[in-house]
Amino acid sequence: MIAAVAEYQAWVAEQVAQTIAATTTFTDAVRAGDLEGAKAAYAPSRQGWERIEPIAGLVEEIDGAVDARVDDFESADDPAFTGWHRLEYLLWEQGTADGGGPFADKLDADLRTLRTELEAMEIPPAALAVGSAELIEEVSTGKITGEEDRYSGTDLWDFAANVEGARRGFELLEPAIEAEDAALATTIEGLFDELEGQLGAYRDGEGYQPYRVLTDDDKTEMQTTLAELSENLATVAGVLGLEG
Amino acid sequence: MGHVSRRRFLVGSLAGTATAGVGGAVAVGCAASPGRDDRATSTGDGSATSGTRYLPFHGPHQTGITHPATEQGLLAAFTVTADDRNELRDTLRALSTESDRLMSGEPYEERSPAYPPLHTGTVGNPAPPVDLSVVVSVGASLFDDRYGLANRKPVALQTMPFLTNDPLDPERSHGDLLLTVTSAHEDVNVFALRQLARATRGTMALHWMLDGYNRRNRSSGGARSPGHRSVESSRPTYPTTPTTPTAR
Fold first, then answer.
1. Which chain B residues are within 8 Å of A228, Cβ to Cβ?
2. Residue B132's Cα: distance from chain center in Å?
3. Tell me, what's the ipTM?
């Protein structure tokens, strides 16, 4: 268990580093006024963040600053609305990179704060299990509606990263799970495979097709597969006797 | 020799078929609703509505069809995403198991807090006895090419067609499978629906939901007037008692 947590912590640090690098590409484009370049760099910049979302979410003030949706504010003009989605609104909804400089700078700074906070944080073993389950649950009930990237339609990129991240957490715990309940481990592996297949159908080069292309039938399929995966992942903490 | 109301007739014939639900409009079949002094009265089928019991799930008919009308009810239509016939069978088994548990008042196991709880905890464990019943019915769409059921479709079971001057909202119409959850208390209905939906999360997705009530109308000898709480949909009609006095 200790080894699994240590490995996970190292992987999280890698993802944060990747996020900072990819986000710099994004924010540089915004500062340079390069609208198309910024749009192309938006979804890739979020991949690392979305993979580690449950852990990153533990640093609450950063989570709100970089990833809050406009629903948490009175309007898009609320100065407290910052981060990726504020820039997403600017680039797609307002169709410009003008005025994005300060938001870009803040995003860079907030991610550096995230790195510092996470380096100091001790991830409890239960977080691997609970975090993966909660992330999949969030995708199944919330994100599947397309609420996250409503301006850019890049939600499928985020889902794929969420699934990847949840799978990573699960696989580090898998030997321990197999020792307690081999059937559960097999079931969860199967569901992850199924989900990856469903997402794979919407691949587009390095990324994914826009959310609006997702058919209702496929969305419902994905929703129920995510739901079943969530129910199974939710038992992992109990199976391993991990509390808190 | 009195006039047989059309609703009573429809109810009778629906109860006679295999409780096949029609997409978009379902009559919740019940035997005659008892009059005002129902606690003392038996209806023709020998039972009175008390709203204070656990009811059996198993029997020759689905209990919600033969049991007298209760005060509160909801309808929830689902899209089935089971991959094949085996998964569909497992889904129906899961519904049966959960309905049996809910209706019989069997408590849920309380596990270690490391596990998510097995029930929502909103109405106690078990839920109180309030004449809860769950009726499962299926829509025409379940008999398509997915599960090899096409040759079993009842002839009369049709997808609700376009109706002139009454266009159906696809968001609130049709479905593969319908749950009708009724009892004396709406909180228990919602609790039951959540438990049933959770037991089948992997193969059923909620499509629409509608809740309503039978209000006892004291001025017309205890006849029930159906009504609905939902502002959004037109409500299927519960059968009402004829106003002639019931035999004691």
1. 201-203
2. 10
3. 0.85
B interface test, pick of A139, A177, A216, A220 with most B CB neighbours within 10 Å: A220
Closest chain B residue to the Cα of A242, Cα to Cα: B114
Cα distances from A27 to residues A45, A88, A102, in angstroms, run 9, 12, 10
- Could you tell me which CATH number the domain at A125-239 has? 1.20.1420.20
Domains A2-120 and A125-239 share a fold: yes
Q: What pLDDT score was predicted for residue B13?
A: 36
Q: Can you read off the two tokens belonging to residue B34?
A: 């008892």
- The pLDDT-based confidence of B219 (bands split at 50, 70, 90) is low
- Spans of all domains in chain A: 2-120, 125-239
Q: Is the pLDDT of residue B40 over 60?
A: no
- Note whether B34 and B41 are within 8 A (CB): yes
Averaged pLDDT for residues B58-80: 93
CA-based nearest distance B71→chain A, Å: 31
Q: Is the pTM of this model over 0.90?
A: no
Q: Is the pLDDT of residue B145 over 70?
A: yes
How far apart (Å, rounded) are the C-alpha atoms in residues B101 and B191? 13
Residue pair A155/A211 in contact by the 8 Å Cβ criterion: yes
Residues in chain A within 8 Å Cβ distance of B79: 220
Measured in whole angstroms, how far is the alpha carbon of residue A189 from the centre of its chain? 20
